[in-house]
Amino acid sequence: MKFDYIIIGGGLCGLSAGIRLAEQGKKTAIVSSGQSALHFCAGSFGLLGKNGDKTVLNPLEEIDRLPEKHPYRLMGKDRVKRLATEVPAMLQKAGITVTGSAEANHFTLTPFGKPRPSWLTLNGLPTFSKLDEKPFEKALIVSIKGFLESYPAFMVENLEKKGVCCRVETIDLERLTHLRESNFDMRAASIAKQMDRATIEEFASKINSCTGKDESVLIPAVIGINDERQLDRMREMVNNPLYCVPTIPVSVPGLRTQHILQHYFEKLGGTYLLGDRVEKGIIENGSVKALVTTNFGEDHLKADAFILASGNIFGEGIKSNPHDFYEPVFGLDVNYSSNRDEWYDFNFFDAQPYMEYGVEIDKDFHPSLKGTKIKNLLVAGSTLAHCNSLKEDSGAGTAILTGIHTADLAMNI
Amino acid sequence: MNYQEQNISANNFEECIKCTICTAYCPVMAVNPDYPGPKMAGPDGERYRLKSPDFYDKALKYCLNCKRCEVSCPSNVKIGDIIQRARIKYDTKPPKLRDHMLAETDVMGNLATAFAPIVNPVLSSGIAKAGLDIIGVDKHRTFPKYASHKFSTYLKKIQPEQEKFQKHIAYFHGCYVNYNNPSLGKDLVKILNAVGYGMLPLSKQKCCGVAKIANRLISRAKHDAEINLKSIREAVEQDMPVLSTSSTCAFTIRDEYPHLLGLENSDVRSDIMLATVFLSRKINDGEIKLVFRDDYKKRVSYHTPCHMQKLGWAAYSTGLLKMIPGIEFVPLPSQCCGIAGTYGFKKENYEYSQKIGAELFEAIENEHPDVVATDCETCKWQIEMSTGAKVENPITLIAEALDVEATMRANGLL
Ligand SMILES: Cc1cc2nc3c(=O)[nH]c(=O)nc-3n(C[C@H](O)[C@H](O)[C@H](O)COP(=O)(O)OP(=O)(O)OC[C@H]3O[C@@H](n4cnc5c(N)ncnc54)[C@H](O)[C@@H]3O)c2cc1C
Ligand code: SF4
Ligand code: SF4
User: Fold this and answer.
1) What is the CATH number of the domain that holds A342?
2) Distance between CA atoms of residues A312 and A16, nearest Å
3) Which residues of chain B does A185 touch, with a Cβ-Cβ cutoff of 8 Å?
4) Same structural domain for residues A224 and A336?
5) What are phi and psi of A31, to 5 degrees?
6) For residue A359, how far is its CA from the centre of ligand 1 (angstroms)?
7) B12 in contact with chain A, both atoms CB, cutoff 8 A
8) Which domains does chain B have, with CATH numbers?
9) Which pLDDT belongs to residue A119?
10) What are phi and psi of B144, to 5 degrees?
């Protein structure tokens, strides 16, 4: 099968690249062997939230202080700025509403009620502009009876530290009675699938009957698994201001974002091949000729240019064995320490060096294979070396911006 | 030495990173709280079962074997295979009479086609439905009508003229085309002949075995599978690819034979494909051309059967449909319709089956297509029963829209 462009990996990065190409009318395919890290995204996209120990307030200004080989440095501050300004409109066209701008980070809450810097925050999550700002005067934290994945006690502890006056109520929803019989099903995604119109009305009216004056209502993010308008409808039904707080993964806003972007890409004419794995790339004379995938077998997938957006250790875009890190599709040159003891930090919660291991690229985002540049292949997203999405809180930003950037570069090859 | 690779079992349950993504995609888990879901039934449960078979949970029978969990797993864990193998290995309760009846598609089909004029009204009668209900076949289900002449008989009859073609394919018609819908087989003959290919029968063919595997009649399934593989090998030796018009037959022969029945098929696996795959590849390689009628106009949706999603071939079928100028193509989200072969016919599953399909049915009703195309016969029954929409195999639509004369001319046959 022949396309103009093929992207390996259909997470936030591959989809951003794919949408850019399909919007220009290019015949584009995305091959994705499984679902993506977007399912873990709590609902806020980071551009650059932290640099070392410092909380970043102005991510664009901070770019020049990042290591020289960081993908944002390779793109250049102006290019990051231009693309970052275009992103909210692109998301809106797909059906995703976000708040925020690259000029200044704002803050949102983690599942434990701690403030977290954010570039763009999905519809429904609470946002506030300053780190030391009190997000609400009074909060009613609503938990759902039997739900395993929200932590009202932590939420209260952290919000009270900020001086918020907190109260917790547990609400029982009729439709979940059946679900509660199971030991496994009370997860965010399972609950979200039960939220039909009648259940949302029941939820809203039970909330209304227990809220006090001036209380902001915080519910776990289990509304709107397919469509954010469901959340808007619920907000209209609830008398007090209503916000969703992220749950632990799999996250409902993340799941929704994945599906909406995929659907938008397909509506633009793109081909999304879910569940297929690129096993091998065929390289001749320094160019990728074709891809061999599990499902297409001897019918090789051909294109003029290719983008590798296969993720990092999670998602198997980068793999390791006891001695080496490697990129499994092409065997591209990867940056990692040859000393195994330097791969990880024994303190689990500290920044892990292996998260920065990835594919080395030149300034035009081309990788190399045993030192030779590959002309029609570009690399983007968390597959790239020299960025650490968790340490920097830059995962979504890197994925979206390098995705769009490499799509533009690919069209100019 | 690569320790990691040496520590991975054949069914790779150790590669699960416990991300829980699969649980969000299991259609059963969303409607049936008794089902523990792919993670627990698959890789997690496997660890316990290795300790003691007593940990086997009989709720694993609720798994549809749709493989949507496998498709979503970022770590490539063979979740569906782990579950089905556990059912085969640990569920020692003998299958019920009802399960035998549903699984023996060949025996039932042979009998029923012989007496089709009698069997069809009887099967749709209230009395038969009540009887079937007692043994556990849900009364809401309508059995597909049986044809009075088998497709295999027709194929024998036309063999002399088919042999005259220079190039040939062998057709695995499966039970549905043979006993219920021979006209789908004839549609394929029409398309193939127009591009210069003759259709030949396999020397012998049995049911692919999917229903027997689902109902744990493993030795019967294996017996049939060995016959099929032998005939497939003979066809491949004569340079004929083996085509199917059912995504489930193709999937079972390609993947379930080695994974669940332990039968080696790697020598012929890539020669077994759907007819739409064969046609698309030949068109892309410039070897054949299809020309369509100008007066054909239809609004068509495509439903991706679970096994088609797993095969990853929907792009071929939709690609062909999109080539037909008169077709207005409306995509549907890839979702399970809930039937899963014989699963939805069972009384204890009927309600879940309809709940699983509800979102898909709603999507179809919102799009109001003239026809829904799909590559699986049981999806066809389910969607027709649940939405009233007309459902056809893509091959039937292509045959309808085909301008045979112009196609033959374009392929240098006239
Ligand atoms: C637990 C966790 C929580 C996070 N939370 C947040 C957050 O709240 N906010 C935020 O901004 N960022 C967050 N991030 C970071 C951010 O989500 C990721 O960095 C970003 O989504 C990565 O996108 P990607 O497209 O580069 O890679 P991925 O999302 O990993 O996608 C790669 C895709 O490629 C596929 N693939 C791999 N190999 C192949 C192959 N050979 N053939 C075909 N397909 C292949 C994979 O199956 C996968 O679907 C989080 C990350 C993690 C791990
Ligand atoms: S998706 Fe795969 S890795 Fe994740 S929990 Fe399920 S089986 Fe394990
Ligand atoms: S095969 Fe289908 S029904 Fe079975 S566990 Fe996987 S997703 Fe669920």
Assistant:
1) 3.50.50.60
2) 17
3) 29, 33, 37
4) no
5) -105, 125
6) 15
7) no
8) 3-90 (1.10.1060.10), 298-401 (3.40.50)
9) 98
10) -60, 145
Please give the ipTM for the structure prediction.
0.91
Ligand 2 near B21 CB (within 6 A): yes
What percent of chain A clears pLDDT 70, i.e. is strictly above it? Answer: 99
Look up residue A13 and give its two tokens. Answer: 């990065």
Q: What is the CATH number of the domain that holds A177?
A: 3.40.50
Nearest CA to ligand 2 atom 4: B19
Is A392 domain-assigned? yes
A234 and A305 in a common domain: no
Task: Provide the pLDDT for residue A58.
Answer: 96
Contacting residues of A for B1, CB less than 8 Å apart: 322
CA distance B63 to chain A (A): 15
Which one-letter DSSP state was computed for residue A181? T
Distance A245 CA to ligand 3 centre (A): 30
Q: How many domains does chain A have?
A: 2
* Residue B4 pLDDT: 60
Q: Chain B contact for A1, CB < 8 A?
A: yes
Residue A177 domain boundaries: 126-245
Determine, for residues A184 and B270 on separate chains, whether the beta-carbon distance falls below 8 Å. Answer: no
For A206, the 3-state DSSP assignment is: helix
- A144 and A11 share a domain? no
User: Do residues A259 and A218 both lie within one domain?
Assistant: no
**A90-143 tens-digit pLDDT:** 999 999 999 999 999 999 999 999 999 999 999 999 999 999 889 999 999 999
Which residues, listed in sequence order, are joined to residue A171 by a DSSP beta bridge? A144
Positions in chain B whose pLDDT score sits under 50: 1
Strands A325-326, A319-320: pairing is antiparallel
Strands A368-369 vs A372-373: parallel, antiparallel or unpaired? antiparallel
Q: Are residues A236 and A259 in the same domain?
A: no
